[in-house]
Amino acid sequence: VNSDRNSFYLRRTETVARELVGKKLIRVINVDKRIIRLGGRIVETEAYGYSDDASSHAYKGRRKRNEMMFGDVGRAYIYFIYGNHYCLNVSARAKDASAGAVLLRAIEPSEGIDIMTKYRNVNDPFSLASGPGKLTKALNIDLRLNGIDMTNYDSELHIELDTESASYIEATYRIGITKALDKKWRFIDPSSRYLSWTNRSLRYNDKPVK
DNA sequence: CGCTCGATATTCT
DNA sequence: GAATATCGAGCGA
After folding, report:
1. Which neighbouring-strand residues pair with A171?
2. pLDDT tens per residue, range A70-82
3. Cα angle vertex A134, ends A33, A121, to 5°?
4. Residues 62-91 of A with CB under 7 A from strand B
5. Which letter does DSSP use for residue A75 in this model?
6. Predicted pLDDT of residue A200
7. Mean pLDDT of A177-206
8. Could you count the other beta carbons within 10 Å of the beta carbon of residue A38?
C-alpha cells in the first residue's frame, strides 16, 4: 500500500539510506511507443541531514534548489552540480525532522541495459551507473523529474520496496565532501562490483576523502 | 592501477 | 569571486 511506502521514508534519513541498499530503482521511458523499464538494484547510498549536517544542501535552510528536502518524503530531489552532472536523491526524514534526503550513488544494472549503454555511451557494465552522475545519465534523469513521487510504482521514476534490503550492509564515510567528515552515513553492499570508484579505496582506507 | 586536472552551471560569500 | 554531494582524459609506474 502507498501509505506503507510513505512510512518507509518517514524515518531517520540514515535508516532509510541503509535500508534502500538492495531495493530496485526503476526508470520508465517511452521509446518508439514502447514502454521500457531501466534500472537495477541500489548498491550505494548516502544520507544528508539538516542543521546537524554541515555538508547537507539543507544545512543553511530552505532554498529554491533544496525545497524537496523539506517537503513530502519519498520525492525526488534532483540537482545540477559541477556544471556537468545531475544527482538524484529521495527525500526521507524522521517525523519530527525538518529536512533530509538520500543520495543514490550507484545501481547494479538489470533492466534496459542496452538503452542505458546508449545514454552513457560506454560498454563496460561496471561503469554504467556506478556513481551519482553516471546513474542519472544512464537513466536519462534531469530536472524535469525533480519532485516526482518515487513511492508510486506508476511514476516514471520510482523505487520498488518489495525486494529485500541487502543481507550485509556496511557504513562508511561519505565521498566528495569537505565538511561533517565524521559521519558514517554512506551505505554500501560491500559484495557488489558496481560501487562508485572512490568507494573501493575507501573500503580499504576507511578514511574520509580530502 | 592511481594521481592530477579541466570542464562548466548554480549557489553561496 | 570561490566552492561544489562529479567524471573522464591523460599521464606515469
Report:
1. A187
2. 999 999 999 999 9
3. 60
4. 63-66, 80-84
5. B
6. 47
7. 79
8. 25
Nucleotide nearest to A66 (CA to C1'): B11
Q: Which nucleotides of chain B are near protein (any atom < 7 Å from a CB)?
A: 2-3, 7-13
The answer to which of A28-32, A158-162, A166-170, A195-199 has the lowest mean pLDDT is A195-199
Taking residue A154's Cβ as centre, other Cβ atoms within 10 Å add up to 7
Q: Which residues of A157-178 are buried (b: 16+ CB within 10 A; e: fewer)?
A: bbbebeeebbeebbebbbbbbe
Other beta carbons less than 10 A from residue A35's beta carbon: 9
Quick one: pLDDT at residue A2?
74
Question: Of all protein residues, which has its CA closest to the C1' atom of B8?
Answer: A83
How much is the pLDDT for A115?
Answer: 97
What's the rounded Cα separation, in Å, for the pair A117 and A15?
32
Is 90 exceeded by the pLDDT of residue A125?
yes
- Tens digit of each residue's pLDDT (9 = 90 or more) over A138-181: 999 999 999 999 999 999 999 999 999 999 999 999 999 999 99
Note the helical H segments in A33-131.
113-120
Q: Give CA–CA dist A91/A70, Å, rounded.
A: 8
Contact by Cβ (8 Å): A76, A145: yes
Nearest to A86 by CA among A132, A128, A24, A26: A132
